[in-house]
Design brief:
By secondary structure, the protein is mainly beta. It has one helix at 89-98; strands spanning 21-25, 30-35, 40-45, 50-56, 63-67, 72-77, 82-87, 109-113.
C-alpha cells in the first residue's frame, strides 16, 4: 500500500497470484481481491492491513462484484459457465434474525448458469 500523500509504501501483503479485481467496502473496512490464477478471492481488513480469509472460486474466475448492502460476493466462473454467489456468514445470521426477507443459510454458496 502507498501513502497517497507522499507515495511511499506503508504496507505490503502477500497474494496467491496476480490480482485481477480489487473492491473496497468502506463500511466493513474490507478489501476484496479476485485472483483468476489460482481462482480465489482474498479479503483483507483494510484498517489493520491483515488477511481475513480466502475463498476458492474457480480457475480463471476473475470477474467479481461485491454487494455491500446484502454483503454478497458475485463471481463469474468461465470454466463452468456459472455465477457463484457467496454470502458473508455473520451478515447471513443477522439477516435471518432481523429481516422479513428470506435469508440463505450462512456461508452457503449458490451457483447459477449464466
Amino acid at each position: 500500500m502507498r501513502s497517497y500523500r507522499c507515495g511511499e509504501v506503508i504496507a505490503s501483503l502477500p497474494l496467491a497470484g496476480v490480482p485481477d479485481v480489487v473492491m473496497h467496502d468502506s463500511n466493513l473496512q474490507r478489501l476484496y481481491v479476485a485472483i483468476g490464477d489460482p481462482g480465489l478471492v482474498c479479503s483483507f481488513d483494510s484498517e489493520r492491513l491483515s488477511q481475513l480469509e480466502s475463498v476458492e472460486t474457480e480457475q480463471g474466475a476473475h470477474t467479481a462484484g461485491w454487494d455491500p448492502i446484502d454483503r454478497c460476493l458475485y463471481v463469474f466462473c468461465p470454466a463452468s459457465s456459472r455465477a457463484a454467489v457467496y454470502e458473508e456468514q455473520a451478515w447471513a445470521r443477522t439477516r435471518v434474525a432481523s429481516s422479513p426477507r428470506k435469508a440463505r443459510e450462512p456461508s452457503r454458496t449458490a451457483s447459477v448458469p449464466y
